[in-house]
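Can't paste images in this forum, so I'm doing it all in text. The chain is below; anyone willing to post the predicted structure tokens underneath?
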Amino acid sequence: MRLKDLEIFVVAPPAPGWGGRYWIFPKITTDDGITGYGECYASTVGPKAMAAVIEDVFARHMAGESPENVELMFRRAYSSGFTQRPDPTVMGAFSGLEIACWDIIGKARNRPVWALLGGRMNERLRSYTYLYPEPGKETAEFWVDPDMAAEAALRFVNLGFTALKFDPAGPYTIRGGHDPAMSDITRSAAFCKAIREAVGDRADLLFGTHGQFNVAGAVRLAQAIEPYGPLWYEEPIPPDNLLDFAEVQKAVRIPVATGERFTTKAEFATVLRTGGARILQPALGRAGGIWEGKKIAVLAECFTAQLAPHLYAGPVEWAANIHVGTSIPNLLMVETIETGGAFHMKLIRNSIRWEEGYVIPPEGPGLGIDFDEELARAHPYTGARLHLEMQEAPCDYSRPNRFEGGAPSSE
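Text version of the structure:
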């Protein structure tokens, strides 16, 4: 059994587009006709350029190889061009291809991927979602209104969720870490207060920031939201300041969570060594794939840290997260788009179950999903923008900042 053919789907979810502007799914077929699907989360270049990178990584490091030789192929890609260091674009391409290899291996063995990673540790996986507006009620105001957020929080808790994420702390700018505007601090505290009052102790609050702040600014904001008992403080500083995560964690009483923009175990190991985070959030379509995700989980276990795999992508990365999460003892929870996401679920023909706040691990071979190629081809991405983008304008200190979440209404 050898890896032979590659096809790439670049899919645009319909509005409101929860999960990003597009999703990239490589499909690999072996010489004996077994197919596997993966997902690449890296979005540092446009989808056409990314497709070319995926094709190059496959042809250079994987074509003709056994899908079982995941470690060998990883080392080839990781060492490509005399590098041997984290590269989000190359490793993002490899990650999606690697996930497809595990799908193939599981189908060849007629076993789910989690069974090949040490077996089932968790019968069901605790699930969390971002706060999203109700379908048909999307508005830019939702992302900056504490009362609307509280109403959404109660709706999701009543569905069964026991953890909810939100990020009202201001703009994501290309300028790096900044001090938050006082209005952003006030709004963040108001969000926490309103949501806590709405849900009481029925759900944990997960506070996201997406790397906006410098160390001092991150500490100031944390002090304002600490009274509401968030379970985590997500990515408080930019991901290129790995050593400074420890400075934030030492100064605040909320566990720091990070990792959605990290690539390979090397970056996760740095924050673990320095005490910079207690909760790791690898995006398996960027971090190196399923086997690298398992290694990150083992590293975390040695530091009594927990995993909460990140998802702001499509359903194949979600499936990969679930298989790794099923096999590890230090899983905290997995991210889900609402209760699975309407288009996400259609794209895999409802082959993953979400029940009362938990995801049920698939029992089918490989990733256990039924990927709908016809639907994927019917929704191609034809734009020129990136999956997610940061703004160039700096933080505004004279007027309240506005940020519309992952799918701006202006599009």
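The mean pLDDT is 96. The two ends are 45 Å apart (CA to CA).
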